[in-house]
């Protein structure tokens, strides 16, 4: 992987546009091909791949352990790898630990598992506030009220690794199939700005 953080404060959109025109100018890619890739990530992938991996981890302890120990390989096994998601790390939410992912420098996001990043994820207020005041940001911006005894771990993307949160399995889901469980997993819960712990399946459907 040669991709890295920009060292200048160029907006990601501008960088993308510059890169796109360069690729097109050099005959390396057509705008149609680029549009197709973007639409693939926007419409086909979305956060469903991540949700399926989470549901699998909830129902298969061995897979869960693999996902936490070697996320890149465990996600690759499901075919959820590729651009912006080759090197992955997954952090498990627990009753006393809550994880959040952010990229303070730009907008690094695990595309193959969560799709394209939401607009607010790329916006400076989220990037600046979440690292400095996670508890307050979760409460004020996302309505997530965490007890003081829950430790918040903010994972700032700082290398070529992309992060994802493994949320806790909601209540009332014992009888559910893996596929039904996957439908309960939200994108926001895998970013860490929503907490599924303590929620009932009914609230999520
Ligand atoms: Fe980034």
Q: What this model shows, in words?
A:
- The protein has 205 residues and is mostly helical.
- The chain has a single domain, classed as Nitrile Hydratase, Chain A.
- 47% of the residues lie in helices and 11% in strands.
- It has 12 helices and 4 strands.
- The protein has helices spanning 12-25, 31-45, 48-59, 61-69, 71-77, 111-114, 119-122, 124-132, 134-142, 178-182, 187-191, 201-204, and strands at residues 88-92, 97-102, 151-156, 162-166.
- The strands form 2 sheets. A two-stranded parallel ribbon has the order 1-4. Strands 2-3 form a two-stranded parallel sheet.
- Helix 3 crosses helix 4 (61-69), helix 4 (61-69) packs across helix 5 and helix 8 crosses helix 9 (134-142).
- The protein starts with 11 loop residues before the first helix and ends with a helix.
Radius of gyration: 17 Å
Name given to the CATH homologous superfamily: Nitrile hydratase alpha /Thiocyanate hydrolase gamma
What percent of residues adopt helix (DSSP H or I)?
A: 40-55%
Shape: globular
Architecture per CATH nomenclature, i.e. the level-2 architecture: Alpha-Beta Complex
Provide the domain count: 1
Largest sheet: 2 strands, parallel
The tally of helices reads 12
